[in-house]
Specification:
Elements (H helix, E strand, L loop, with lengths): L6 H6 L4 E5 L6 H8 L6 E5 L7 H13 L4 E4 L9 H5 L5 E4 L5 H11 L25 H9 L3 E6 L2 H5 L1 H4 L6 E4 L1 H10 L8 H11 L6 E7 L2 H9 L2 E6 L2
Parallel strand pairs: 1-2, 1-8, 2-3, 3-4, 4-5, 5-6, 6-7, 7-8
């Protein structure tokens, strides 16, 4: 187990981090070429709007691990937080939960992301990041190592989620990400909501989360020209494509 994997601490500290967003089906050479095109802190893959298999996820995470890159995975559906522990057993370093509006969703996501006594993730799985089959780590040592490194994000994509941001940003959540397109649908469906733009919603959430230690991120691709504006709003977690 390496002590160099400090992505969680960097996010929590407010450092600007950038993920490489690429398809889960990417071969090793494709991943290497993509990583060579920029400076990336982790890899992001989407399970919500793309097809995948367990075998593909294990293979992809193994490739990324060989290259020293953590992988974050957007789970297929908000109600599948109960599967987060299983997804993590496939080699992921973290998860992003889409369309969050309920505290119970966050509670379950936290429980499934962390080992006891922080959460209740089940022990097991030989594909876990940092786990070696030939020389298995001590159970408590590994659990402590993992709990200090797993990255959990939740995605706000509705006016309800925006209004509840402070209560949804619970201990164990590292950052809150915005999904602008679905948030626009929600704004259009609530014409009397006092915040009328995505930017206003982002600024409102940033104000709600002041002094919580929970950071802000984008769940869509942004280029360098857009980034200055978002940095001004307090957003520090970004996505890019090569």
């Amino acid at each position: 187990m390496s002590s160099a994997d400090t992505l969680k601490q960097r996010i929590r500290g407010g450092e600007v981090v950038v993920s490489l967003r690429i398809p889960l089906t990417s071969a090793r050479d494709d991943v290497v070429r993509a990583l060579d095109q920029g400076e990336y802190d982790f890899i992001y893959v989407d399970g919500q709007h793309t097809a995948f298999s367990d075998e593909q996820l294990v293979t992809f995470c193994s490739i990324a691990d060989e290259l020293g890159m953590p992988v974050q995975f957007r789970i297929p559906h908000t109600r599948q937080t109960y599967l987060i522990g299983r997804f993590l057993d496939m080699g992921l370093s973290g998860n992003l939960v889409p369309e969050v509006v309920e505290e119970t969703t966050v509670d379950e996501a936290v429980e499934q992301s962390y080992y006891p006594q922080v959460g209740r993730r089940s022990w097991g799985g030989t594909s876990r990041r940092g786990f070696t089959v030939d020389d298995p780590p001590d159970r408590l040592e590994y659990a402590s190592w993992w709990n200090e490194r797993v990255v959990l994000g939740i995605q706000l994509e509705s006016v309800v989620g925006v209004t509840r941001a402070r209560t949804l940003a619970k201990p164990g959540v590292d950052y809150v990400a915005f999904g602008p397109n679905d948030l626009l649908f929600s704004l259009e469906g609530h014409p009397r909501f006092p915040l009328r733009t995505v930017d206003e919603c982002m600024e409102n959430v940033a104000e709600q989360l002041t002094d919580t230690g929970v950071r802000l991120g984008m769940a869509v691709i942004t280029d360098s020209d857009e980034r200055a504006k978002y940095l001004g709003m307090g957003i520090t977690v970004f996505q890019e494509t090569p």
